[in-house]
Amino acid sequence: MDEMKKFATAGNKGKGVRSDCFISIELCSQDGISVEMVSKVKALYGKQIEVEIKEMLNFFDIRHAKVAIEDSGAIPLVIAARMEACIKQLIQTEKEYLLPFLAANAYTTQRDTHRFTRLYLPGNTPSLAINAGIHKPNAIILDLEDAVAYDKKFEARFMVRNALRGIHFYGAEKMVRISQLPKGLDDLSYIIPHGVNLILVPKCECADQIMVLNQHIETLKNRHHITHDIWLMPIIESALGVMHAFDIAKAAPNVVAMAIGLEDYTADLGVKRTAEANESFFARSMLVNACKAVGIQAIDSVFSDVSDMEALKNNVLRSKALGFDGMGCIHPRQISVIHQHFAPDAEEIEKAKKIIHAYMMAQEKGLGVVSLGSKMIDAPVVKRAEKTIQLAVSMGKLSANWREEFED
Question: What is the CATH number of domain 7-90?
């Protein structure tokens, strides 16, 4: 940053802005600290906000400054993020102003965690993130890439860092979509030490990108004494990426899923994205096959019409039929539809129960060959049936005591 800069701003203001603030700081040579505030809650929280602002300035050894804040209901972690973004435009410092880490967010996730739904949240729009967890997506995505304007990316990093530390996501897998590499490498120090579970790698086109990314991740993990896995989900968004999908899928052990981004992919082809999706059938099939060959999850693109639930349902059923394990969503109302139709249906559950029951009976009798009706059952079939049962139980579609109930 420019050491001689004397004035900086961060945040959002204006009509429709909620749970945010717009802060400006001007460095002065004398007269101490002054805080000018516009806020509907000034009578209730004005003194507290002023104290927080002055504490931050003192933390960064700033003794003379004029601060103006236009508040639209920002919670402390938002104000802190906006303040720090301003301060670090004005001075060079290695200090970080970190609010306490929320104990409820101190969880890791497993390689095979269910990822039916991932709710995208623009990284610089705190109002959408604050209550995102109550909608019960499998994951939330704090987005530092396309959802953030280029000139806002610097301040968005502080917002995403503070959100990871302080917003209750109710057990949803905490994902961050970093900027396109190599710029995205600069995002890592704001997320690796602060509880991210999985990193989405946008516009991924080769395995080398995953290797470079992992080198930087490991450096930060060692520096901050992090021992748990941080998962990766490359996003394929170009013709070149599609052709390299298998190499990307097997590039590293912490690649647990791979997604396709159809808006950028169809733009790369120079064609229009349609509801029938014939233009992307090849790419989606390539991605699913690459994922299944390696044993990771295949994640479909978002469905952009948030008002048409019937069309979303049909899209989910087509996606599931292709072999996808989940998809992104851009509005909370899409979550329940995606969950319902990616989950095993009654026919799938009943068939899985019969397969497992037949397999268990054959084992008890010491039979080397297992059959159900006229069809032979081999190990991959049993494995798929077990996965179906696990999903059904986890989503409340089947009792954990299903075996006893089935035999009755």
Answer: 3.30.230
On the 0-12 / 13-18 / 19+ scale of CB atoms within 10 A, 391 is buried
Average pLDDT, the chain: 91
Find out whether 121 and 142 touch, Cβ atoms under 8 Å.
Answer: yes
Give the CATH fold of the 103-342 domain: TIM Barrel (3.20.20)
Residue listed under structure tokens 């009509």: 15
Chain centre distance of CA 371: 42
CA 212 from chain center: how many Å? Answer: 21
- What amino acid is encoded at 390 in this protein? Q
Q: What are the distances in angstroms from CA 105 to CA 117, 167, 228?
A: 19, 8, 15
Nearest one of 293, 328, 326 to 143, comparing CA atoms: 328
Ranges assigned E (strand) in 79-158: 117-122, 139-143
Nearest to 144 by CA among 133, 131, 132, 153: 153
Q: Give tens-digit pLDDT for 20-43.
A: 999 999 999 888 999 999 998 999
- Residue 122 pLDDT greater than 90, yes or no: yes
Q: Using DSSP, state whether 8 is helix, strand or coil.
A: strand
Domain boundaries, the chain: 7-90, 103-342, 346-407
Residue 229 or 4, more confident: 229
Same fold, 7-90 and 103-342: no
